[in-house]
Specification:
- The chain has 422 residues and is an alpha/beta fold.
- Helices cover 36% and strands 14% of the residues.
- The chain has 16 helices and 13 strands.
Length: 422
């Protein structure tokens, strides 16, 4: 089996699809965009597909890493094998797209070294993921990204309480704000390296270290901390490549769109992709970047971007335009809650699905609903819209299950939406 560094693989530029007038009107309502395009970053894989694990009673699934998580983790993929740590540690929700992407990259690395089956090999990297208390139904029947991460060999460390998880995230933020733990690692990455015991002690989870030593003999060496969602300064490498794809496509289109300006829009969790994309494109007077806050509000997203201050100034001029989430429900008195269920968001998702855009159900509906809410303001003038599809469609089954439990969706009736609730 060839070593990872010898694999000659260059991801192709992301494809761009132009929506018909009917499609654009369906998902945006009344608008004045000269044209609406979608950059299908969800179809661009960071690495060739790798055969996934064979699960009892089911087929092995191909492992790919696509969307904005592939962009944000490109730096990790390009590390030489000798610089990979023993353990990659991250944290977040139980259905996180970043969790699945990291699990896939670690599996791909192990596959490249030809030793996927040796789960206890101390020479191979392992992925450890810390999450808040898990719902009982997910423990009983793992689904979605959580099930995929487990199948890919991820060690899930569940905190005993939400308070314990908060203490862990506070410890992580304190460490990253100081520039990371000092340690014996060779890779110069945010979070640096620390011993596994140091990490768990800081998290208040030191009792798990004995279990780890028992389950993974000899694997208590260096630990690389990847912040939640891949929100690290090293993400700029892949985000700049996204900017290159945008510029390449727009410059090729300019002869047919003289005098027009391009607005690049995308949803934002931590805002990392939008922040670095803006840094790359800010010198272009004919291209601007805006993002829609999907977690919290616009101010929260700006605060998350400010944590990347080591990569540039955080004055208002250095940040992209950030829109608040759209108003929720029939009354429109409050914003959508991230991860919540709302029939109108489900309707937006169905419209995107009908347009064959393979949307996720967490970020895409919020972003498109916000663009529709502000369509007249944003599309004023001779502008074109380029929406960046950030991936995440693999999580749709578990997201639809949440809608089913909320009584908003019935699988036996196809995609029929139930009564309006938010």
């Amino acid at each position: 089996m060839r070593r990872l560094s010898s694999i000659k693989w260059r991801p192709p530029p992301a494809q761009v699809e132009t929506l018909s007038n009917q499609q654009a009107t369906t998902v945006l309502g009344s608008h004045a965009w000269s044209a609406v395009h979608v950059l299908r970053d969800d179809l661009r894989s960071l690495h060739p597909p790798v055969q996934g694990p064979q699960q009892p009673g089911s087929r092995a699934f191909p492992v790919t890493t696509a969307g904005n998580k592939a962009r944000k983790l490109q730096w990790l993929f390009q590390l030489p094998p000798c610089e990979w740590p023993r353990v990659i540690l991250s944290h977040g929700g139980a259905q996180s797209n970043a969790m699945r992407a990291l699990a896939g990259l670690v599996w791909q690395q192990r596959s490249a070294r030809g030793d996927v089956e040796v789960a206890t090999s101390a020479a191979l990297p392992h992925f450890v993921y810390v999450c808040p208390p898990l719902p009982a139904h997910l423990k009983a029947k793992p689904v979605g990204n959580f099930a995929a991460a487990l199948a890919l060999g991820t060690t899930i460390v569940e905190t005993p309480s939400k308070r314990a998880y908060h203490e862990f995230t506070t410890a992580v933020e304190a460490v990253t704000s100081r520039g990371g733990w000092g340690g014996s690692g060779t890779a110069d990455c945010q979070g640096a390296h620390a011993s596994w015991h140091q990490v768990l002690h800081a998290a208040g989870l030191h009792g798990h270290s004995r279990q780890w030593d028992r389950d993974r003999p000899g694997a208590s060496g260096s630990v690389l901390l990847v912040p939640q969602g891949g929100a690290t300064e090293h993400a700029q490498l892949g985000c700049f490549s996204l900017g290159q794809d945008v510029v390449r496509w727009w410059d090729a289109r300019l002869p047919s769109s003289p005098g027009r300006r391009l607005v690049v829009a995308l949803p934002a969790g931590t805002g990392t992709t939008a922040y670095f994309l803006h840094q790359y494109l800010r010198c272009r007077t004919d291209i601007s970047v805006l993002c829609v806050a999907a977690v919290g509000n616009a101010e929260y997203t700006r605060q998350q971007m400010a944590k990347l201050q080591g990569c540039g100034a955080t004055a208002a001029s250095s940040l992209p335009v950030v829109l608040d989430p759209p108003r929720a429900g029939c009354t429109g008195k409050q914003r959508y809650r991230f991860g919540g269920t709302a029939s109108d968001l489900l309707a937006v998702w169905q419209a995107l699905e009908a347009a064959h855009l393979a949307p996720d159900l967490l970020y895409a509906p919020v972003a498109w609903a916000a663009l529709a809410e502000r369509a007249r303001d944003l599309s004023a003038g001779d502008n074109e819209l380029l929406y960046v599809h950030t991936g995440g469609a693999e999580g749709v089954p578990s997201q639809l299950e949440r809608y089913r439990r909320a009584g908003l969706w019935e699988p036996e009736s196809g995609d029929r939406i139930m009564c309006c609730r938010s």
